[in-house]
Structures are given as C-alpha cells and as structure tokens.
Write a structure and sequence with these properties.
By secondary structure, this protein is α+β, with helices and mostly antiparallel strands. Among the domains are: 125 residues, no CATH class; 109 residues, Roll (Chitinase A, domain 3), CATH 3.10.50. Helices cover 47% and strands 14% of the residues. The chain contains 11 helices and 7 strands. The chain has a 4-stranded antiparallel beta sheet with strand order 4-3-6-5. It has a 3-stranded antiparallel beta sheet with strand order 2-1-7. Strand 1 and strand 2 form a beta hairpin. The longest helix has 31 residues. The two termini are 43 Å apart. The N terminus is likely disordered.
C-alpha cells in the first residue's frame, strides 16, 4: 500500500501521541453555559470564561479553545489507553482540558525540582523541523500559524513547556520501568507457544488521510468525514468494500481496502491494538494514527509459524513497557491531582 502502515518502534519513556483533536466551538458559546461557582486564586479577576481552576492557576475557556488549535498543546505526552477519539465535540473539549490540567501539574512538579530547558535545545528543535521539511524562515512562520500559534515565539514557549514535562516524566517514572524477562517469557509461552507461533490477520481498512500540517478546520472536517463513512458502513447503507472504494485515500491497498495477511509486529502499534480487539467480521470505531483516521474490518485470522522469536520478544517487551508506563503515569497524575485543588468548570 502506498501509505503502508510501518512497523512500530519501541516507544521512548514518553511519546507525543497520536494525533490532535480540534473543534470549532466558540469561546463565547461555552462561557455562556451555567458554571458552578468557585473561589478564584488571589489576584485574579474573571474577564473570561473559566474552564478549570488548578491550585493558584486557572485555565480560561479561550485558552482551552486555543489549545484545540495547537497541534502539540492538545496531545497527551504519554500513550493513551484507546486510540478512539470522541465524536462528541464537548467530550473532545473535556479530553483536551484534562490534558491541559495534567500538563499544569507536571510543569509545577518540574519547576519545584528546578528542571529547565535551555534555549539551545529549542533552537536545535526548530532547526531540525526546518531541515526535515526543507522550510526557510518564512515557511516556518507560515506553518507555525497553521498549527495555531500566533508566532514563532509562542511556538518556542510551547516546545519548551513540552520538553520540560517530558524531562519531568522521565525523571519521575523512567527509573521505575522494569520488565522482568520472566514476564516476557510468560507472555510468549501463553500467547505465542514459546515464540514458535503467532497470529496473522487478514483485514481491510478505510483511510481518511491527514496531512501533518493540517489546520484545525481541515482536521475537524476529515474527522467528521471518517465518522460519516463509519456510520454508513455500520448502518449497512454501504458495504465495507464499497465504502473503501468510494472514500479511502489509501491507493496502495488492494480492492476494497484489502491489506492482506499481516502480523502484529508489521503494523503501527495503535492500528494493531484496534485490529486485534476485533472479532471476525467486526468493524472498529474511528481510530487515529499518524497516517490519519482509519476504519478497520477484520476478515479472518489464523495461526502461523513465527518468523522470528526475537521480533516477538521485542514486540512483547514494548507492549509490556507501554502498559506499565501508562499505569505508572496515571497513578502519579492521580497523586498530583489529589495534592492540588482541581475544579472543572465546564
């Protein structure tokens, strides 16, 4: 397939997630809704709708709406339990708000430890971005605005904040990640006959492709299109094959979005996780990966001889590390939230 889903690499201690969710809801529309009263931190006056109060910080409705338009700001720094994004825009807003609250708490923890990110590191990030995309400074400015930032300075501060949080998460949780070889062996014995057998799945997918520099408006439109296609198939107004022929952007697949037989380690990890949950003939919800939005159908599954025990060991280790990391992160965030006054106002 032209946009063949690449094999996953072992994720780092943290990962910028999948994908962004944006919305067209206005600040005024949200602020107009009734909100519970809360005491503002000393020194603040309400001049904007309040989305949340976190300790002595507030997240305004306008900040929340802007975060929807900023590719980095609305992403989680750790893998999520599910790649399915809410289709309800209020639920999507709440999802981004939860991320912003977590970000504030992690940033405060980093500041209390004296962690900093030097300008040279930000400069290197910008240069790498320019080199990878072959952008001059004017093109960089244009694309930064497409991502929802007012200017390069605002983008630099966002990058600094994200790197600071990444460093804090690594400092706090990195050393606690421990995957015992015995646990890897247990999974191999239980699910892969000691590393001698593995599953191979025959599947189809419909891809609504999303460009990396897609604007919030475009992203919204494409996500809505993906759910529209999903609903057509679920309602049996179109067969999966017909929908793939009519709507899929993946021109590299066979007829009807056919991906053929694939082994789990050959696929993007998020895509594979959604596929492996399906029963024969089952159709996934809209799943988001770096390639765009997918609707997946499981055609058949079979057991085959493993191609490489080493590949299976690496895959199992990556899965166990991610599961453990998410658990540790969620426990830590719960502790941070318990230690601060956090009040949701929308």
């Amino acid at each position: 397939m032209a946009t063949r889903i690449s094999a996953s690499v072992v994720r780092a201690a943290v990962a910028s997630a999948v994908v962004v969710s944006t919305m067209a809801m206005s600040s005024a529309a949200i602020a107009a809704e009734p909100a519970r009263k809360a005491t503002l931190p000393k020194g603040y006056q309400q001049v904007d709708g309040i989305a949340a109060v976190v300790g002595r910080k507030i997240i305004t409705v306008s900040q929340l709406v802007r975060a929807q338009a900023q590719n980095s700001a609305s992403q989680k720094l750790v893998p999520t339990r599910s790649a399915v994004r809410p289709r309800n825009r209020r639920e999507m807003l709440r999802q981004v708000l939860d991320t912003l609250i977590d970000n504030l708490l992690v940033t405060k923890a980093a500041t209390s430890l004296g962690l900093t990110v030097p300008d040279t590191e930000i400069d290197a990030h910008l240069q790498k971005l320019r080199d990878r995309n072959l952008w001059d400074m004017d093109e960089l400015r244009q694309n930064v605005r497409k991502m929802g930032f007012a200017d390069i300075r605002a983008y630099r501060e966002n990058v600094r904040a994200e790197k600071l949080r990444v460093n804090m998460i690594r400092t706090k949780l990195g050393a606690r990640l421990r995957i015992a070889e015995a646990e890897i062996k247990r999974v191999l014995d239980l699910e892969y006959k000691g590393g001698t057998q593995e599953e191979e799945l025959h599947s189809r997918h419909i891809l609504i492709k999303v460009a990396q520099d897609a604007s919030p408006v475009v992203l919204n439109r494409l996500r809505d299109k993906a759910w529209m296609v999903h609903d057509l198939v679920i309602a049996k107004k179109k067969t999966f094959v017909d929908a793939a022929e009519a709507f899929s952007d993946d021109e590299g697949t066979e007829y009807g979005g056919d991906l053929g037989w694939m082994r789990r380690w050959m696929l993007d990890q998020t895509f594979a996780a959604a596929l492996w949950k399906l029963k024969k003939g089952g159709i996934s919800k809209v799943v988001q990966t770096p390639f765009g939005f997918h609707i997946i159908q499981l055609v058949e599954r079979r057991t085959v001889q493993a191609k490489s025990k080493k590949i299976l060991e690496q895959m199992v280790r990556a899965q166990l590390m991610e599961t453990q990391f998410v658990k540790l992160y969620e426990q830590w965030i719960a502790e941070l939230r318990a230690s601060e006054h956090v009040e949701i106002r929308i």
